[in-house]
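SAMPLE LOG
Freezer: B-3
Tube label: C17
Construct: single chain, 344 aa
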Amino acid sequence: MPPTPSRRPWWRRTLRTLAVAYGVLATLALLVVLALSDGHAVSYVLGLFATWWLVPALVLVPFAAAFRSWRTLAAVVVPALAAGTLFGPYALHRLDPRDPGPDLRVATFNTTNWRGAAGVTELMRHGGADVVLLQEVVPSQQARYRDQWPEYAYRSYTGTTATGGRNEGDGNAVWSKYPIVSVEPVTGLPTGARPADVVTVDADGRRIAVISVHLASPCLFCSPAKAALNPAGDTADAARVRVAEARRYGDLAESLHAAGNAVVLAGDLNSAEFNEPLRVLRSHGLTDVHRAVGTQPGLTRGASPGFARVDVVLVAGLGPVDDHERDPGGSTHSPVVADLAWPS
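STRUCTURE (predicted):
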């Protein structure tokens, strides 16, 4: 007897084929990210964009189970587990409505060479932060904004040069309503890293070590000539610099916390959840505020909703309460405002 024709609708067969293809490709992408980490432009970009290409796995698992498509389920199980790792904290960690409110509010903002000036203004006027960490601060703006927002009476700048210098716009800053009692340069950073300072703030008798960071920028698919202009080198070199920076900052945060300081380390990591530097920093006892209390991915890089969460607030000796994004105002990054509490 001739075989019985399949009764499955064509659209189900097509969807299953596409789902299996997606599962295989997503699994291969995860293997590339794990094997090459950030050392290749492709693996680095895959890590940055992981939020987007892992989302379908969360939809396909119930789809495969509902239609009893075990081949599809087997194909998407690995990316589904990765998606659970990525998105799980946002489903499990919710804000506590009984919390009395924050003791301290901090903000971090990469101003994109101050093109996000409107975002800076909005953040200062309405963000309510006690301490603001800035990146890509243009030196020429220091004098211009010296008399604005007098509530931030204490300010420290790092790594800025005169207008027209090679590092124009690469500087960091800390603006504080609380007194700055000391500023110490971070030593031991790798060649190609941007300079940074440990800015110690006295918050009503409590010491907070504040570090505004901007990890090495990638040079994706750079020509040798362009890579030579990047202080951190080509894609692979920049990846190694970022990891070395993360290890140094992690060690520093551990020692500062052990010495009795609360620690706030925040800024532009040029790294997302599936890139190595953020994992390195967390492994040194730093708490990722958004991961602890966020209820959405919080993608800060690029126009809303953005493509990656690269702007991060990490703390030690302070409890996460809440965090949210503000208007970028022309920057390619969104400011992140984090509410924190002293340990009881």
